[in-house]
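SAMPLE LOG
Freezer: B-3
Tube label: C17
Construct: single chain, 430 aa
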Amino acid sequence: MALAARAAAAGVIAGVLAGRSLDALLAGAQARVAERDRPLLAQLCYGTLRLAPRLDALAGQLLDRPLRRKDRDVHALLLLGLYQLSDTRIPDHAAVAETVAATGDLGKPWARGLLNAVLRRFQRERAELEAALAPAARAAHPDWLFAAMAAEWPDALDRLVAANNSQPPLTLRVNRQHLGRDAALAALAAAGIEASPGRLSEDAITLARPCPVEALPGFAEGDLSVQDEAAQLAAVLLAPRDGDRVLDACAAPGGKACHLLELAPGCELTAMDVDAARLARVRENLDRLGFSAQLVAGDAADPALLDGSAPFDRILVDAPCSGSGVVRRHPDIKVLRRDADAGQLAARQGAILAGCWARLAPGGRLLYATCSLLGAENDGVVGPFLAGHADARECTPAVAGAERTTHGYQLLPAVDGTDGLFYALLAKAS
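STRUCTURE (predicted):
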């Protein structure tokens, strides 16, 4: 028997609150609900987690005492109910009734009265409750992230908050080895899908409304891939050439690796990732697009990993990071990340950068990229690296619409715009 969407969503949200990944949890939950309920399930999970810091603060005001850890699913259901009442078009009576009914599916019938009373109190006292929230909670951000954005990007704070709390656009990348962007736009229009060309990447198309990839003409044949326009700039900035030896050092799930091959199908690409299981995703993407590459499971920071192989002409280091520039796509970041993470990640990023630099040929170029807004992971990594390597210089081309930083360019996320990515292109002395 299929599980009701709200009960399934509560299970997913409770799992994230316990420290697990949204992507993994949602994939399992989708299989447990009726097909017609899967879009609602995704909306409830993503929407609730995008606003979780605000909803959690409201729940703290509404509850006389916190729920026990074993009742985390009831707490998740409460957040889910508050989200429906405050930020969806679901009628209030339906939101309350269906959320309360989900206590039965969770095996927690004792919570019916509690949820009903708390949600109805929120309806009566919403204005007062929201006015009492602290600035970070009102902005639906954890304290540490709100403070970091306010300190580093004070003039863009409202824009960043709005972007992080919004549903991102669905952007496609046209495989220029198959067709041009105009032809792809024409095929989408013929299928009744409204779309427009991107502004930063010649291969980008943004859909007016998201739709399943299965409905995209040519997707199965490799004509199109899903990739944010900011992420598409990685291959453009690295500018591989046919005949180059190219390393994508942190390749999974493979979007940037495939774009490198679309730009230079004659290059010799090695795609590396520390997670052998995630390399399977890289292989799937390569196969769908009809490309081949050498796949290597290993740590890019290990200088001995590719001993004996020829140096690379181009290296992409899409470093593991806090993800603070892609919060709208991965809203569980607001729950799972902590203030100390950026500093710990910076040490890891520096090690990967140094390990890859040793594999770069004289005269070659390395692109350091993160999807972070935090200077500790960006200039804070590139600056010390440049200071310690006399054979390195930064030569990042200007990126339209991006903020120039000390050692690169930062794209900031925006509603109906790109994700927030940092890029620094480094050249090695001949």
